[in-house]
Write a structure and sequence with these properties.
The chain has 237 residues and is an alpha+beta fold. Helices cover 26% and strands 36% of the residues. The longest helix is centred in the first third of the chain and has 13 residues.
C-alpha cells in the first residue's frame, strides 16, 4: 500500500495445488520505481509458494527479467503473442473430429489437462464454461479426447487459450475451427518451441506482436508440455 493512499505495487500468485504456481500482473507505480518493491514482492511470493515450482512470463522489453534471474529464475523458452484477422486456408484433414464441448466433457478434459499441464486446474476449466465464448473438443475415431480449445473475449481480441492438443495437426484444426467465423482480431500466445505452429499462424494473419521470456524457479515444469500449445493467459498459465 502507498502510505499516502492507493496502491504502490502488486503481484498475483496463482496456485495449482502444492506443486506448481504461476506469477503474473506484477506492477509498480512509477512514483515508487527503483526502490526495490519488485524484489520484495517476488521474495514474498516465493516464500508463499513454498516448495512449488514457480513460473512466469517476463516481458522481454522490461527490466524485470534481470530481477527474476537474480532471484534464481531461469529462462526456458519464449512466448510470442500472435494476433490479427484470421484467414483460413486449405489444410490437411485432421485425424480428429471437432465439436462444441458440453458439461459431460469436463471430467475427460480435466484428466487430459492434468496430464499435459502437470497439475490439477479443474477449477479453471469449470470457469471456462462460464466466460468463454467457445469451447471445442477434438476426438479421434474411437471417441477418445485428443485436445480442446477455449476462446474468450479480451477487449477487442478473441483470445484462444488454453489450447491442448495431441499434436500440431490437432492444434491447427482447433484454431481454425475456433477462429474461422471471427470477424475481428484473434489472438493466441504460442511458445517458441512450437515454431511450426507459429509460422502456420503467421501465414494466416496472426502475426507476431510481442514476446515474453518463460522463466521457472525451483525445478522443471511438470506434465507433457509439448502438448500445451497455448496458455489460458500469460499471467495464469
Amino acid at each position: 500500500d502507498d502510505p499516502a493512499g492507493g496502491l504502490a505495487a502488486m503481484v498475483v500468485l496463482t496456485r495449482y495445488g502444492r506443486q506448481l504456481a504461476a506469477v503474473g500482473t506484477m506492477v509498480v507505480a512509477s512514483r515508487f520505481g527503483h526502490r526495490g518493491l519488485g524484489r520484495r514482492l517476488t521474495t514474498c511470493l516465493l516464500e508463499q509458494a513454498g516448495p512449488a515450482v514457480v513460473y512466469l512470463a517476463a516481458n522481454s522489453s522490461s527490466y524485470s527479467r534481470p530481477l527474476f534471474e537474480s532471484l534464481g529464475f531461469r529462462s526456458i523458452d519464449t512466448v510470442t503473442r500472435h494476433a490479427g484477422r484470421f484467414t483460413p486456408r486449405p489444410y490437411a484433414a485432421s485425424p480428429s473430429s471437432l465439436r462444441p464441448a458440453s458439461v459431460s466433457d469436463r471430467d475427460p478434459m480435466a484428466a487430459l489437462d492434468q496430464k499435459v499441464f502437470g497439475a490439477d486446474r479443474r477449477h479453471v476449466l469449470t470457469e471456462l464454461f462460464g466466460f468463454a465464448e467457445r469451447v471445442l473438443v477434438a476426438e479421434d475415431r474411437h471417441g477418445a479426447l485428443t485436445g480442446f480449445a477455449a476462446a474468450w473475449r479480451n477487449e477487442d481480441d478473441l483470445v484462444i487459450g488454453p489450447l491442448v492438443a495431441a499434436d500440431p495437426a490437432v492444434a491447427r484444426a482447433l484454431i481454425t475451427a475456433v477462429a474461422a467465423e471471427e470477424n475481428g482480431s484473434v489472438r493466441v500466445d504460442i511458445r517458441g518451441s512450437h515454431l511450426e505452429l507459429a509460422n502456420w499462424a503467421a501465414a494466416r494473419g496472426l502475426v507476431p506482436c510481442g514476446s515474453a521470456t518463460l522463466m521457472v524457479h525451483g525445478g522443471n515444469l511438470p506434465g507433457e508440455r509439448d502438448k500445451l500449445f497455448a496458455p489460458v493467459s500469460g499471467a495464469t498459465g
